[in-house]
Amino acid sequence: MHDPIVHTHGLTKRFGSTTAVQDLSLSLYPGRILGFLGPNGAGKTTTIRILMGMLRPTSGRATVLGKPAGDVATRRRIGYLPGDLRVDPRLTGTDLFAWFARLRGQHEPDLVAALCDRLGLDPSRRFGALSKGNRQKVGIIQALSHRPELLILDEPTTGLDPIAQREFLVLLRETAARGAAVLFSSHVLPEVEHAATDVAIIRGGRLVTYAAVADLLDRARRRIELRYASPPATAAFDGVPGVVDVTVDGATLIVTIDGPVGPALRAATDAGMVQRVMPVDDDLENLFMTIYSDRGDRIEVH
Fold first, then answer.
1. CA distances from 141 to 137, 151, 186, 224 (A)
2. What is the mean pLDDT of residues 84-108?
3. Cα separation of 15 and 172, whole Å?
4. What digits encode the pLDDT tens for the residues 126-180?
């Protein structure tokens, strides 16, 4: 087992009488992508700023790449995108990338050019003339431009168009595939589902769930619509593991599944000639919303 790249234990941060983060303990390992989720004010950005050394915890501890959070030498090994990237509007993307390269002592112009091409960014334009989406691309590229061992991104896809979002998620997976760790906060649940290997959900400063995405998907209740060539034989679903409800309307059948979908899909082929299979709604999102809400209890998934 590798040592964790990020590790927190009992991490707590108070601002006067307000507790922003309370007793947060988690570990992020090489090759993993952690989606850090929670409503506004949950403590995500405060946690990220502690990991970057911008804030000191009130109590508890945080280590990054084996060193206390904020270690100056370690920061060169981190790619970071804040949620409110601020750059001198007179600078171009090329200026900014060169400046960061000098700070880090690592200049990879070919990598920067390839990232600009993949995200569709013209680095010769001044930052002040860029749209929100293109400013975000500048921030993403500077965070990736030195092949960091840890990538920390705060709401990275804000303002990105769908094509850039898709390419960004590919970049995250490539970063993890070379052994780096990724932590990114997000409100966009589908992108977390598609890119992250793990999810940490924080609410009111407390960690309420830390789980592999695959485990959460298995836990989520799903509804699938099946369209048949003729009215299906619903008896094929009797006693099938995970099937909690079956409704039929002519040649259309909706099956509600609590757990893995495999057994239900095998039963679906026994019920008749399936012409089309569609998800009815995003039940993983419903699970997240339950966890986010004040009514959601802590969920442990192993």
1. 6, 11, 18, 39
2. 92
3. 33
4. 999 999 999 999 999 999 999 999 999 999 998 999 999 999 999 999 999 999 9
Q: Whole-angstrom Cα distance, residue 138 to residue 129? A: 12
User: What percent of the chain stands above pLDDT 70?
Assistant: 92
Alpha carbon separation from 133 to 20, 113, 161, 187 (Å, rounded)? 29, 18, 7, 16
Closest CA to 96 of 130, 139, 64: 139
Q: Which residues contact 211 (CB under 8 A, 6 or more apart)?
A: 198, 199, 299, 300, 301
Tokens of 72: 């100056």
Query: What separation in angstroms does the CA of 57 have from each of 21, 66, 151, 184?
Result: 9, 17, 21, 20
pTM: 0.80
78 token code pair: 């981190």
Cβ–Cβ under 8 Å, residues 268 and 255? yes
C-alpha 211/C-alpha 220 separation (Å) is 13
Does an H or E element contain 252, and which? strand 252-258
Query: Can you give the pLDDT at residue 256?
Result: 87
List Cβ neighbours of 173 (8 Å cut-off, separation of 6 or more). Answer: 33, 195
Tokens 């940490």 identify what position?
200
How far is the CA of 61 from the CAs of 36, 67, 77, 118, 205, in angstroms? 19, 11, 20, 38, 15
| Structural contact between residues 284 and 195, judged by C-beta atoms closer than 8 angstroms | no
Residue 40's φ and ψ, nearest 5 degrees, are: -55, 135
Which residue's structure tokens are 């680095």? 123
- Residues whose CB is less than 8 angstroms from the CB of residue 246 and which lie 6 or more positions away in sequence, other chains included: 234, 237, 253, 254, 255, 256
Query: CB neighbours of 279 closer than 8 A, spacing ≥ 6?
Result: 222, 223, 224, 225
Q: Which of 193, 191, 196, 259 is nearest to 222 (CA)?
A: 259
Q: Are strands 198-203 and 206-212 parallel, antiparallel or unpaired?
A: antiparallel
